[in-house]
Design goal:
The chain is mostly helical and 297 residues long. The chain contains eight helices and three strands. The chain has two domains: 208 residues, Cation efflux protein transmembrane domain (Alpha-lytic protease prodomain-like, Up-down Bundle); 76 residues, Cation efflux protein, cytoplasmic domain (Alpha-Beta Plaits), CATH 3.30.70. Helix 5 runs antiparallel to helix 6.
């Protein structure tokens, strides 16, 4: 199965699961009188939004070069990564704010509602399903080097972690009494901070790519070494690199013997490009400019 089909498949199944879970948790939250589970259901609906973003952006990113996008559409996938990461930050921020608000209310003497066990069982089902979706989605994202899909996988896990907080609070409130419902909010706050951290961690590399940041120094050194390994290349300079979705773009000047014919120089650059694509992927975009060595004159 190719890259696009694999990504679409795992994302569509994730979207279907999100719809079913969101409806089930909403019903369980209302019937079980659990505010935590109702909020959890809204979180699942937000996951559905991230699924749609990934599906649309990956579809656009899979297009080849055209007149308007001569370097391809890879950055649309990067844009999806940023969008989903921002959604994670929004969800984490909302969870944190709601948790702090409920804790403050508890210390002001507000009574905590004891939820029914139906909400607890719904939370357990959600944890199992969403963790399974995380594992599958993260595997596909890593396999096909898709930051957008990996970020979406973390959105699944954030929902599972949200359900962990709900399950803890519901269980303690139901088994030990209403005052223990405060643990739902305490755990939710801790989880929300973790979700915010993941959102930041996913957003920063994508923002670097969108602002045309160069590849890491160690990667550029490896590119330089691959080019210099080609017999006839005397030096490499003026290198420019950047990422476009899962692929990379390499532009560089290579120095050769001034006595080399144009045809020989052309064959040399083709060989260097072949080696680079063998190492960094067949979709690597390469532009090598040949310069004569001044020292050889």
């Amino acid at each position: 199965m190719n890259r696009e089909k694999s990504i679409v498949r795992v994302t569509v199944w994730g979207a279907v699961a999100n719809v079913v879970l969101a409806v089930a948790k909403l019903v369980a939250g209302i019937v079980g009188r659990s505010a935590a589970m109702t909020a959890d259901a809204i979180h699942s609906f937000s996951d559905l939004v991230s699924d749609v973003i990934v599906l649309v952006m990956v579809k656009v990113a899979s297009r080849g070069n055209d007149k308007d996008h001569e370097y391809g559409h890879g950055k649309f996938e990067t844009l999806a990564t940023v969008a989903v990461a921002l959604l994670l930050l929004a969800v984490g921020g909302k969870m944190l704010a709601d948790g702090v608000s409920r804790i403050a209310g508890f210390f002001r003497g507000e009574q905590m509602v004891v939820p029914g066990m139906i909400a607890f069982w719904a939370a357990l089902v959600s944890i199992a399903v969403k963790e399974a979706l995380y594992q599958w989605t993260a595997y596909v994202g890593r396999k096909f080097d898709s930051p957008a899909v990996v970020t979406n996988a973390w959105h699944h896990r954030s929902d599972a972690l949200s359900s962990v907080g709900s399950a803890v609070g519901i269980a303690l409130a139901s088994l030990l009494g209403g005052k223990w419902a405060i643990m739902d909010s305490v755990v939710a706050c801790a989880i929300s901070i973790f979700i915010i951290r993941i959102g930041v961690k996913m957003a920063l590399p994508a923002l670097r790519e969108l602002t045309e940041a160069s590849l890491p120094e160690e990667t550029e050194n490896e590119i330089r070494d691959v080019i210099l390994s080609v017999d006839g290349v005397l030096d490499v300079h003026a290198m420019k690199t950047r990422k476009t979705g899962p692929d990379i773009i390499i532009e560089s000047h290579i120095v050769v013997d001034p006595e080399m014919t144009v045809f020989q120089a052309h064959l040399l650059t083709e060989y260097a490009e072949d080696r680079l694509r063998e190492r960094f992927g067949q979709k690597t975009q390469i532009s090598l400019h040949v310069e004569p060595s001044v020292e050889s004159k």
